[in-house]
Every structure is written in C-alpha cells, then in structure tokens.
Amino acid sequence: MIELALSPLELDPLTRPYYGQHDAYCIAQLAPLARRLDCYTIKFYKAPDSASELIPANGYVRSDLRITPGSLIFGFFLPALVSTSNPPGYLVQITDLNFKIDGEPYTFWDQPVPSIFLGNYKPSYLTADALQTTGLIASFPTLFEAPHPVVGDGSFKFEFWDTTGGTAGPAGSAQRIELVTGVLEPKECR
C-alpha cells in the first residue's frame, strides 16, 4: 500500500496547493523529512544577535552564526510591519563559510537581496513590540525548495545593510532587524 507523506507545514490554514504556488511546491519537497521528525528537532537561530539588531541609518551589521553541523536549513521567518505588511527594509547576504564551490565560500545569492524577498506574508499572530512603533506580524516561513545542508563546523556569515536611510525605526534614525533561520537539527533516531 502506498502511503503519502504529510508534512506538518501542510496544516497551515493559509497554505493550499494552488497552481504556481511556491509554498506548496516546497512543502512537497520537505514532506519526506516529516516522516523522520523522530531524527530531527526544529531549532531557530536569530541573526543578528540581540546586541546588534538595532541598525543605524545606512548602516551595516555583520553577524557570525554557528549552526549545528549535520543540520538542514529549511527557510526563514521574517516578521512584517503592521503599517506596511512588509518586512523592515534592508539588504541581506548569507555566506556558508564551510560549503565551498570552486574553493570559494558559498553565498546564498549572487548579490545582497532585499528583505522583501525573504518575507512570506501569511499572518499567524500580531505583537505590539515596543521597539517597533507600529508592531510586527509573525508570518509563515519562506521555505527553500530543498534544504541547505550544514557542513564543517557550521559557520555562517550574515550581513545586513539598512536601505531606509533613517526613515524607519525608533526616532527615525535606526531600525530593529532580525532574521530567524529555521533548522532541522539531527538527534539520535529511535
């Protein structure tokens, strides 16, 4: 008897397998891992760290992150602002310092990408965060088409550039940024 894999991500009420929908395709690619949840624990890694998440106008922040080797990165969680339904405005580039192609560390994109490309506006809850005067909306993750393997010692470099020029954030001079990475961390299988 054939048994279809069902991913817990398919339980999201805002995600349906409509023609051309990216989430449904990605969920189908990740579904086989759902059968192996006894071998993985879902973990979340935040970049930049809490001390560096307030980025000045036109500023740059680098955050080094170490993810458990053997893990699989499945996507990003990026909250949206209530006022615009978009994430805070910045550019991001992620470099896997251990995964090398032609001897060079692997960058996730050819050039830094706007944060809007990592947002997936499917609201799940609303918060009145004191650092975001208009509040944040938690959202469904932006999924990778295939999980990214964490190799070597799991070192990643996250780089952020402010693109608002001081028109967002507290007192109009800075903004709070955070990018949460969703990871399946291996554990001993039963």
Structure description:
By secondary structure, the chain is mainly beta. The protein has one domain (44-181): Jelly Rolls. Helices cover 7% and strands 42% of the residues. It is built from 1 helix and 14 strands, in the order H-E-E-E-E-E-E-E-E-E-E-E-E-E-E. The strands form 4 sheets. Strands 3, 6, 7, 8 and 12 form a 5-stranded antiparallel beta sheet that branches. A 4-stranded antiparallel beta sheet has the order 1-14-4-11. A hairpin with an 8-residue loop joins strand 9 (123-127) and strand 10. The model has no long low-confidence stretch (mean pLDDT 77).
Question: How would you concisely characterize the structure shown here?
Answer:
With 190 residues, this protein is mainly beta.
Q: Estimate the global geometry from the Cα principal axes.
A: globular
Radius of gyration: 17 Å
Number of domains: 1
Report low-confidence residues grouped into runs of 5 or more. Answer: none
Strand content: 35-45%
CATH class: Mainly Beta
The beta-strand count equals 14
Helices and strands, in order, run as HEEEEEEEEEEEEEE
Topology:
Blueprint: H1 22-34, E1 40-47, E2 54-56, E3 60-66, E4 72-77, E5 80-81, E6 90-101, E7 104-107, E8 113-114, E9 123-127, E10 136-139, E11 142-149, E12 155-162, E13 174-176, E14 179-186
Antiparallel strand pairs: 1-14, 2-13, 3-12, 4-11, 4-14, 5-10, 6-7, 6-8, 6-12, 9-10
